[in-house]
Amino acid sequence: MNKFSWPCVLVAVASFAACNQTSGTTTAKTAVAHADDTVMSCTSNLPSRFAVNTSSDSIVASGNNSYEGMVKIPGGDFLMGAADKEGRTDEYPQHAVHVDGFYMDATEVTNAMFAQFVKATGYVTTAERKPDWEELKKQLPAGTPRPADSLLVAASLVFTPPAGAVQLNDVSQWWQWVKGADWKHPQGPGSSIKGKEHFPVVHVSWDDAMAYAIWAGKRLPTEAEWEWAARAGLTNKPFTWGTEPVEKGKPKANIWQGHFPDRNTATDGYARVAPVKSFAANAYGLYDIAGNVWEWCSDWYRSDSYTQSGTKKLINPAGPAASYDPEEPTVPKRVVRGGSFLCHASYCASYRVSARMKTSPDTGLEHTGFRCVKN
Ligand SMILES: [Ca+2]
């Protein structure tokens, strides 16, 4: 088990996991410095993680037009973004948005659902592909040394809790680059999804999620659709269930309890991923829209996309034309939403309906999945 060192993945994780209430900058820079010590610089343009065609060009739609497992989300108008002062900078200002009605998967895509897709198409996920150094180095600064063979392997990032309290600005303390970790082996070789058919699929990249969606005759939600669906008809409430703090009452979502990242009391019943439908649905019938696993959206991420929205109501916004994250300006990123089983009230709190996060589209992690929508 190697400490993760793959640069683009590392950058993505640094940004993704650095979801404290202020900024991910420190975390990302710390992680980049860490990468410099080990393999190569992260300050270049982001290389395609595996430098192979991970697009969904070869995926043929299954032709299945069923709406089974989906719930109808009505169209409507809302104010997108944080209504209170609990948001991070990129959640402001609130701005008026209209979305047309659509259908949304009631649950995150499960291992059983993803297995059907792989069986039908032979699709190989990003995490299962070995990096091609000859292609990869074309996108890195001249003279970048070749990483050790032990790092140029099919691998993914696994949550590995430290033995004791650690600085929260160093995500390498709890993420490890594990050879052989992928959707079928969530904790690496020796782990499996046997008996976990109804758990959400994880270790899927944005490319993987897009490929699945095409095959299923669906698509990924826009960020606006996702937030509208998470708000479930409530106005300016912080959570998909309303206003009650997440720690009060009965467990509302699969998050982290205890002390992050070293002590998880799992009082909600789950230390890692939970089977879908383990917690109550929101008013639209969506399960686990808060917590459990992050969910990919179709949009590129821009930290300033809300400030650029202007005052005119946006109709079915599909996000910016390109990505820009000032914390990692050379790394294109897609939006993820909803938080995960690693979100803790003191550290991340991304189970809030307006919380935004971002990661590079060629990165999968143990706490990242998706659900689809359909017109
Ligand atoms: Ca939990």
| Helix-strand pattern | EHHEEEEHHEEHHEEEEEEEE
Q: Give the CA-based shape.
A: globular
Strand portion: 5-15%
Query: Which molecules other than protein and nucleic acid are bound?
Result: calcium ion
* CATH fold-type name of the domain at 66-126 and 191-374: paralog of FGE (formylglycine-generating enzyme)
Number of helices: 6
Number of strands: 15
Mean pLDDT: 85
What does the main sheet amount to? 4 strands, mixed
Which oligomeric form is depicted? single chain
Q: In terms of per-residue confidence, which ranges show pLDDT below 50 for 5 or more consecutive residues?
A: 1-48
SSE class: alpha+beta
CATH architecture of the domain at 66-126 and 191-374: Alpha-Beta Complex
Assigned CATH class of the domain at 66-126 and 191-374: Alpha Beta
**Largest sheet: spatial strand order:** 13-12-10-14
- Measured on Cα atoms, how large is the radius of gyration? 19 Å
Distance between the termini: 43 Å
How much helicity do the residues have? 10-25%
CATH superfamily of the domain at 66-126 and 191-374: paralog of FGE (formylglycine-generating enzyme)
Can you tell me about this structure?
This protein has 375 residues and is α+β, with helices and mostly antiparallel strands. It has a domain at 66-126 and 191-374: paralog of FGE (formylglycine-generating enzyme) (Alpha-Beta Complex). It has helices at residues 7-17, 25-38, 111-121, 133-136, 206-216, 223-231, and strands at residues 2-3, 70-73, 76-80, 95-99, 102-105, 155-159, 175-179, 258-259, 263-264, 294-300, 314-315, 334-337, 356-359, 368-369, 373-374. A 4-stranded mixed beta sheet has the order 13-12-10-14. The chain is globular and about 50 Å long. The structure holds calcium ion. Calcium ion (CA) is lined by residues 254-256, 266, 268, 270, 341. Keywords: Signal. InterPro entries: CTDL_fold (IPR016187), Sulfatase_Mod_Factor_Kinase (IPR051043), SUMF_dom (IPR005532), SUMF_sf (IPR042095). One of its GO terms (molecular function) is formylglycine-generating oxidase activity. This is Sulfatase.
